[in-house]
Amino acid sequence: MTRKKRRLYMLLLALLGLGTATALTLTAFQDNLVFFFSPSDLQTKGEQVKDRSFRLGGLVEDGSVRKLPDGVTVEFRVTDTQHTVGVSYRGQLPDLFREGQGVVAEGKLRPDGVFVAREVLAKHDENYMPPEVTDALKRAGQYKPADTRASAQ
Amino acid sequence: MIPELGHYALVLALFTALVQAGLPLAGAATRNTAWMAVARPASYAQLALILVAYGALTWAHVVSDFSVANVVENSHSLKPMLYKVSGVWGNHEGSMVLWVVMLAAFGAAVAAFGRNLPPTLKARVLSVQAMIAVGFLLFILITSNPFLRVVPAPIDGRDLNPLLQDPGLAFHPPFLYAGYVGFSMAFSFAVAALIEGRVDPAWARWVRPWTLAAWSMLTIGIAMGAWWAYYELGWGGWWYWDPVENASLMPWLAGTALLHSAIVVEKRDALKTWTILLAIITFSLSLMGTFLVRSGILTSVHAFAVDPKRGVFILILLLLATGGSLLLYSLRAPTLKAGGLFAPVSREGALVLNNLLLSTATATVFIGTLYPLFMDILKLGKVSVGAPFFNATFIPLMVPMIAVMVVGPLLAWKRGDLTYALKKLMLAGAVTVAAVLWGVAAHGGPVLALIGIGAAAWAFFGALAEFAERIRLFRGPLSDSLHRARHLPRSAWGMTITHAALGIAIAGMVGTSAWNSEVIRAMKPGDTADIAGFTLTFDSIQQVQGPNWKADQATFTVRRGDAVVTVLEPQRRSYSTRMMSTTEAAIRTTLFSDLYVALGDPDTKTGMWTVRLYHHPLVPWIWAGGVLMALGGLLSLSDRRFRVGAPTRKTAAQKGKAVPAHAHPAE
Known about the structure:
The complex is a heterodimer.
Chain A: H1 3-32, E1 33-37, H2 39-45, E2 54-60, E3 66-67, E4 73-79, E5 84-90, E6 102-109, E7 115-120, H3 131-139
Parallel strand pairs in A: 1-2, 5-7
Antiparallel strand pairs in A: 2-4, 2-6, 3-4, 4-5, 6-7
Chain B: H1 2-30, H2 33-37, H3 39-62, H4 69-74, H5 81-86, H6 92-113, H7 119-143, H8 167-170, H9 172-196, H10 201-232, H11 243-268, H12 272-295, H13 308-332, H14 347-377, E1 383-385, H15 387-407, H16 418-424, H17 426-442, H18 447-470, H19 478-487, H20 490-514, E2 517-523, E3 528-531, E4 534-545, E5 549-560, E6 563-568, E7 571-575, E8 580-584, E9 586-589, E10 593-603, E11 608-617, H21 620-637, H22 640-643, H23 650-654
Antiparallel strand pairs in B: 2-11, 3-4, 4-5, 5-6, 5-7, 7-8, 9-10, 10-11
């Protein structure tokens, strides 16, 4: 086998790999992109997320968390201070889930407008605010930067 | 006083690194031996100074010096000593100091052990290593000084994030960083080789041990992180395809490809430009990982509150390192002479295929991880890319990778015989089919799990079949086979162990992802719940007091039928300083499965506790497989050919090419 021929083989193989990857990626993107919406977004784009899984983010409204009688389903409201969406979640909330703090949940909208969360994203740091939530609050004009380094200096 | 000494040492280290980055490089260009010789003492001095800084910070944490802001924010006088020490790297500033400790340590190790490196190459490697150090030392001093004081000093600190007060996570960052930073060695060697303008088998032999060491550390780091997420977050999940997790997976995949392509350079003098490119990419991905984690630009379950200024700084470092080295690559790579020829069906061919698949997989993870960022920048909406995307792209690429991984080692260099190789794998193939059939019979699917179990069996038994072939098992007296096994090079043992361990890990991933069971119940003492043939009785709940936390601890008696199997005591801890609670799951681990109990919130009105029970089949195999893979890597690292003064450029003289570097005696 000559050098030229080998190079050709390698090139073909590489192209094959690249092609497969592109095809896989594109098909996967089509089905698996999860959009992020704030409660305000839902008012305008609610139609396009019917039956689709998406992420909802905002602040957990103060005093809205309550447990249903079955003991494992929790309901709370997510707000960006302009609009509010009710959320129902079956299972254990993450350790750092708090009223008044940022939250991101993934799930679907029920016909009655309640968001059924399949997953409530955990976080490791009480001061951490997911960038989308920060953004959603900024758009609602209600963002107060968290004072994360209060004690420094 | 001591924190200021640390700060001062860090500044001195910066200047040492500046000298180390400049003089040896200029010396190598002008053949000035004295200038090149500066590299060695400079790299020792740099390590010593950074260690002084690191020691000063550790001291401040250990004695709880609350006049230091970093200690105030991340420590508490009542915190156990283990976490006072690990708390040093449990925060942004301290972890960056650990980063440069590792960087300097790798540099000093090259200075100490690389005695048979040609002086010019060694000078250039250490100089490139120092350039990286300059970047990160500047980063620490400008944006993340860990030695800032607070006036007036508070009486006590704000404690370390409770989730990090855990033995699993205490040692996760050092291993992860040793891996990330270890790849800087491959990068420095690649850039030095590009400046030098030559890559040969000897070069590959020098660069491979460093890559292998980094890869093994990264493997342990990732496995520890997965283990921690599994038991500490109380979800029983070990991998979410979260950006921060992907950030560690990408250098791992690229590093795996690099390890294998370096073999081809070493044995066959081929794939040189590709290997250099991989070395650059691997470290760039490590830097990108640092950027993603430290900038908080992507939503992650593992993210911590961050300062956006820092992200910009690391992004600039990343662009300089990657851009600079790629520019050098584009200028110099075409001048590297191509090496040995080989047929498509050959060991080289298999390694090339493995490399293509691994880098394609790296690319899909890269695209999936950064896609939300592109969408956001282009104002196309906010999206996230989750597990379904990665399962749909990554797994289809890993299946052929594993298929080839088993066949490759049985092919000869240059021109292999596929039928011969497949004949040797008939038994392994039969076991694979049996494993899939077992999957159908025992669980009936899903299809992805059946493919996974097949891949696991093929990787494991294929690796054993290759080993049996090497020692000619059952083809002569057993004593002969044992004799052969004893005399096999350790790198061969390492390969068999690592490849087989990958099979073990895959089996664990498949078992727990496809066949786990989960029960979420509200329970009060006296209640029972059933899961996977076990009956758990919620006996009681009591208060427990720890050094800086108190907890509600539940007692569950686990029975199978009437026999008591074990008692599990999950806790729900609350750390008063940060007002945070953590879930301490109780897990019963056996060889084949985990029984996992996590205690959730109590309902104050009804006195019911949310309890989550999981049964995870085969999950311990993931950690065992990860650790075995790393051990295989380390065993291979101890191979004779890396230790004995074998890597010398014999060919240089034979080719009649004068290499000026050799005119100077090694120091």
